[in-house]
Amino acid sequence: MCKWCKAHHSESLAKCGSRMGRQFEEFFERNLWRMQILGLIDGFERHPPLSPEDHDGRDFTVRKFINRALIEKSVGVTISARSRRRAQKLHPHIKVISFKKALKTSRIKMANTVLRLFYLPALEPSNSFYSMFESV
Predict the structure, then answer these.
(1) Which strands sit side by side in the sheet containing 43-46, from one edge to the other?
(2) Each residue of 14-49: pLDDT tens digit?
(3) pLDDT (tens digit per residue) in 84-106
(4) Rounded to the nearest 5 degrees, what angle is found at the Cα of 58, between the Cα atoms of 108 and 41?
């Protein structure tokens, strides 16, 4: 049984982990689109694999205007605790985001993690964006 996807298949553990990691990146990207549509962030860029940004540990760059100044925060995303530790050692200047059950993480939890990059308050059930965020 595969430790990543809990299924029986002939795919190697490394290939399955890579596939699951790419799926998480796509999930994270869809979540960033939701945040942009709702005005929680002002933009983002997903850096292609093997690009100079990717080699620097940056999978995404998120943009937000704060007090009329454009602030950019770059992050790496991973589903593996080992990859997270390795990335933090190689690129200590880049925030690495990971979740224990990456593909089952709620959109709200992921959005709050991104908002914290900019030292912004988290989405709470009393916030008008909270219910809209889950429905977009």
Answers:
(1) 43-46, 60-66, 69-78, 95-98
(2) 787 778 888 888 989 999 999 999 999 999 999 998
(3) 899 899 999 999 988 766 556 67
(4) 40
> Residue 59 carries which DSSP code?
S
Total residue length of the chain: 136
**Which residue type is seen at 92?**
P
C-alpha dihedral, 96 to 100 to 103 to 104, nearest 10°: -130
Give the SS3 label for residue 119. coil
pTM of the model: 0.79
Neighbours of 16 (CB within 10 A): 16
- The tokens describing 130, both together, are 């909270």
Tokens of 111: 């959005």
